[in-house]
């Protein structure tokens, strides 16, 4: 709180004229007579303002790209994308596509969403709004794939792969840990945009058991089943905790996840 107050006081003292020469002559003369803080503030605020303008432009461009294919599908996933980006760094871009079967250089077991790690893109079927059972189900699917992305982009997937190669007899157990952690991360993201939900309310059978993420072609990606109840247990944990600090599972610790947070 103290830091917020100090930051608030600093910005309150800053001149709102960010560029030299702006404003009246009286305003410029007044700035010359004031202490250095407003001038330093202006120097700090200029790059922040520029970065904000650029980020808004990139986000808007991505939204336009998605909406051009299917406005309904774009609306379904928009809030989840914003929520994920607000919580974690280095996430992949999200793209709607009318040809999901070829998006990751070949078909995968999932016909609605795929994460191509070597392209660093999450591809979503443009007709998602026409085939998904509910807005909650769509939000979960996007949040789930973001869970994989957090692991991949921040080193957790590499840790898991090394453990599997070192102890191939434990591959099933280790992949189960990875999957539980993904569901926990998904719960953290999902909880930002939807009320608390059980997976059993969204799916009659366990989702995401076939290949849907990895290096292309995804047909060679991992296929993991841990049961709907186990997935839901960790999905609930993420929603309740609202923090990936609660997502440690056995050998899959939380240190990489904590580094992923904004």
Secondary structure elements and pairings:
Elements: H1 2-12, H2 25-33, H3 37-69, H4 71-87, E1 93-97, H5 100-103, E2 113-116, E3 121-125, H6 128-131, H7 135-153, H8 156-166, H9 171-190, E4 213-214, H10 228-241, H11 255-260
Parallel strand pairs: 1-3, 2-4
Antiparallel strand pairs: 2-3
Helix pairs in contact: 3-4, 4-7, 7-9, 8-9, 9-10
Tell me about this structure:
The structure is a single chain. This protein has 262 residues and is an alpha/beta fold. It has eleven helices and four strands. The chain has a four-stranded mixed beta sheet with strand order 1-3-2-4. Helix 7 (135-153) crosses helix 9 and helix 8 (156-166) packs antiparallel against helix 9. Residues 1-24, 30-36 and 49-61 have low confidence and may be disordered.
TL;DR?
The chain is an alpha/beta fold and 262 residues long. It has helices at residues 2-12, 25-33, 37-69, 71-87, 100-103, 128-131, 135-153, 156-166, 171-190, 228-241, 255-260; strands at residues 93-97, 113-116, 121-125, 213-214.
Essential attributes:
4-stranded mixed β-sheet; 262 residues; disordered N terminus; 11 helices; alpha/beta
Biggest sheet descriptor: 4 strands, mixed
Query: In total, how many beta strands?
Result: 4
The helix tally amounts to: 11
Shape: globular
Low-pLDDT ranges: 1-24, 30-36, 49-61
Strand order of the largest sheet: 1-3-2-4
Helix percentage: 55-70%
Q: What class, by secondary structure content?
A: alpha/beta
Order of helices and strands: HHHHEHEEHHHHEHH
Mean pLDDT: 82
Gyration radius (Cα, Å) is 22 Å
What is the terminal separation in angstroms? 18 Å
Q: Which percent range describes the beta-strand content?
A: 5-15%
């Amino acid at each position: 709180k103290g830091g917020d107050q100090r930051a608030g006081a600093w910005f309150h003292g800053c001149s709102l004229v960010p560029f030299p020469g702006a404003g009246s002559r009286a305003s410029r003369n007044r700035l010359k007579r004031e202490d250095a803080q407003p001038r330093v503030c202006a120097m700090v605020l200029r790059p922040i303002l520029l970065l904000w303008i650029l980020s808004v432009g990139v986000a808007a461009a991505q939204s336009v790209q998605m909406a051009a294919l299917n406005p309904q599908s774009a609306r379904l996933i928009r809030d989840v994308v914003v929520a994920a980006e607000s919580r974690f760094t280095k996430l992949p871009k999200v793209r709607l596509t009318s040809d999901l079967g070829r998006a990751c250089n070949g078909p995968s077991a999932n016909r609605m969403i795929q994460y191509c790690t070597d392209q660093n893109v999450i591809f979503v079927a443009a007709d998602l709004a026409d085939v998904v059972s509910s807005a909650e189900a769509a939000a979960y699917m996007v949040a789930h794939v973001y869970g994989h992305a957090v692991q991949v982009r921040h080193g957790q997937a590499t840790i898991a792969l090394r453990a599997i190669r070192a102890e191939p007899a434990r591959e099933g157990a280790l992949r189960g840990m990875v999957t539980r952690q993904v569901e926990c991360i998904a719960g953290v993201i999902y909880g930002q945009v939807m009320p608390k939900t059980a997976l059993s309310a969204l799916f009659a059978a366990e989702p995401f058991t076939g290949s849907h993420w990895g290096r292309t072609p995804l047909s060679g990606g991992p296929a993991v089943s841990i049961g709907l109840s186990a997935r839901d247990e960790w999905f609930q944990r993420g929603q309740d905790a609202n923090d990936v600090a609660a997502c440690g599972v056995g050998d899959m610790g939380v240190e990489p996840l904590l580094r992923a947070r904004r």
